[in-house]
């Protein structure tokens, strides 16, 4: 494992940390995979990935959370991101703190998104003292919607995402919510 990986917190199998330069190429591979990005309007370039990572690191420095770089602890392999981010696009419910994830295909179907998101919720409610966390996805993104349900989140709204307005397949989205008082530590 790289010496410069300092975990902010861990779950049973995952380590969560701020981003490092070595993550850019690995995350760019994930963002360039059409199957991983099938519920987004397009894949992302290496430059877009670098800008994303820079935004996440800046947000972490300011708020002590971001979409964290996630590593599989047993192997030390970077698997993608799981974490929290502030959403500010034009919507009645924004700004809100969103929980999200994007993992490489080899990390799918192993329960990592659910495990990691549960641990991020614990961090959000217990360490950061946030009162509410949201999650959103296009209605067609059933894998993510299923994770939201496994987290105990409740659907509160169906909406047309303004940043996806021109995409007939993706614009209809759902917003889920979990309140601190309803969160159960596992």
Automatic annotation (TrEMBL):
Pfam families cross-referenced by the UniProt entry: Acetyltransf_3
Parts of the chain that traverse the membrane: none
KW Transferase (keyword) present: yes
InterPro entries given in the database record: Acyl_CoA_acyltransferase (IPR016181), GNAT_dom (IPR000182), N-acetyltransferase (IPR051531)
An example Gene Ontology molecular-function term: acyltransferase activity, transferring groups other than amino-acyl groups
Every N-acetyltransferase domain range: 14-182
Keyword annotations from UniProtKB, A to Z: Transferase
Name of this protein: GNAT family acetyltransferase
Native source organism of the sequence: Pedobacter lusitanus
